[in-house]
Amino acid sequence: MSLISEPQTLESTQSVAQTMRKLESVATALAAEAAETEAQQKLTDRAIELLIEAGVTRVFLPKELGGMGLFPGEALPILDRVARIDGSIGWVNTIFAAGGHMIDYLEYEPAREIIDSGEPLFGAVSNGAATAVAVDGGWSLTGSYRYASGSKHARFIFTPAQKLVDGEPVQGPPAMFAVPTSEISYGEGWDTIGLRGTGSVDFTFTDVFVPAAHEAVVLGAPILGGDEALGGVGLLIPLMHLGFATGITRRILDDAAANANRPPSRPGAKRQADNDRFRIEYAQLEMKARAARALVTEVLADIDDTLREGCGLSREQTSMLMGANIHTHDIAREVAEWAYRRGGGTTLRAGDAQRAIRDALAGVQHFIVDDSHMSNVGWDLLGAPDNYIWMGPTFGPIPGTE
């Protein structure tokens, strides 16, 4: 197992380096959009333009459709860097990036039509329910979903739905459908402690026609892309959250260091950086954050190696991915709570430092990183039955083998 994930081809190396340079060139301008993004509860038009300009929304889009087609470990530094700039912008960017992998499950021609019709910005949801009734040429979808992060900017949003033919449920693997967001009705408000700029509102849609060619069977083998796509959606979801968690943790620690090194506001007072207790706490959290980041890098490097061999993830690799994801978010929570406590008036008042803390605390509330899942991670590492597999965040026997 390699400990550091590096792009394995000259093409990937150059592609990642070029994208990181573009991202750095727009980082200041992108950061300037953070406050307004939060205020309007969606990314600003300028923020979207800058993400597109940097190319960071295309990290998982297959190469044959004009994307970067990166392996997970190659993409992480890009996702991480965007989240360091701003939590909401970083969170939405991971959604856009993930949508590039969802399209791997469409045939080339319909996928090409979608890409050619506009910028490939896609959303995806799973918290809700919908039905897909068979009609001539495709499906008629009706449903409602929650937590539609970034969907106000997306052109299509991939939603699961129960297929019905002649009123009867269709058996088989779950399907996702590319629903045009022009046919969606959004709910009001997104009143949360943080990640307000993601605009993760509820939405509904009624009798929306989706062509048969826009159905994606995401538990099957990907149709487009190369070996990098073999990890499937089960890999994609934790990876999205990892990019956010590592980036926002780094941002909070950097903000805390900058605040600690500022001249004191009271005559005769010392800087926080001159306080031994603060130094110890900061150093301890730096070690925890860097250790968590190293674990993520190691886990993704191992996964990249497996995918390059043309294989899917083993059960243990999935368990390690789940565990690393939860652990990294636990560290993000610890860092955010400490930074607020030690930030004094700086973190009490509205501003960049407080917003990063609030965004972190919102992100660590996600169901996918609830520490209850660690029970199943531990069970696998200790020797769960051979017929047990991961099905999303659920760990249990293969259906029919109970």
From TrEMBL:
UniProt name for this protein: Alkylation response protein AidB-like acyl-CoA dehydrogenase
UniProt keyword terms in alphabetical order: Oxidoreductase
Organism: Microbacterium thalassium
Statement: the UniProt record of this protein carries the keyword Oxidoreductase: yes
Keyword Lyase applies: no
Superkingdom classification of source: Bacteria
Entry-linked PANTHER family: ACYL-COA DEHYDROGENASE, ISOVALERYL-COA DEHYDROGENASE, MITOCHONDRIAL-RELATED
GO molecular function: acyl-CoA dehydrogenase activity; flavin adenine dinucleotide binding
Matching InterPro entries: Acyl-CoA_DH_C (IPR013107), Acyl-CoA_Oxase/DH_mid-dom_sf (IPR046373), AcylCo_DH-like_C (IPR036250), AcylCoA_DH/ox_N_sf (IPR037069), AcylCoA_DH/oxidase_NM_dom_sf (IPR009100)
Residue ranges annotated for the Acyl-CoA dehydrogenase C-terminal domain, each copy included: 240-370
